[in-house]
Prior knowledge:
Distance between the termini: 136 Å
Oligomer: single chain
Region (Disordered): 1-22, 104-144
Organism: Sporanaerobacter acetigenes DSM 13106
Number of strands: 0
Keywords: Coiled coil
Largest sheet: none
Order of helices and strands: HHHHH
Strand content: under 5%
Protein name: Phage minor structural protein GP20
Coiled coil: 36-63
Helix content: over 70%
Amino acid sequence: xxxxxxxxxxxxxxxxxxxxxxxxxxxxxxxxxxxxxxxxxxxxxxxxxxxxxxxxxxxxxxxxxxxxxxxxxxxxxxxxxxxxxxxxxxxxxxxxxxxxxxxxxxxxxxxxxxxxxxxxxxxxxxxxxxxxxxxxxxxxxxxx
Length: 144
């Protein structure tokens, strides 16, 4: 009985509006299109934010790796300025030890003066700020 009353009320409402089924379908379709368009815009905006955040995440990961590389290089007495140019796996001890050996070998084979230069009279006078001593030393060498 209640179901019949509901149907009658719906029919009366429909008759009062004078809308055909075709017009009703167009209205429903129009409203669903509006909602769908709104949601698709929101989805596109959120997808754009996702890609933006993924790019930022990659940047942060690169920076983190760079700073970790600097720390590892410093710990192993390797110039930390090289972190920009070398790409090593900082978790791999073999790579770090190999790099450490290369720098140690280069340091060992580099130029090392055998004797230290002795300060001459001119250098001593220069350190003391003695202009007269510097001039007399230069003139003395000139006339030897």
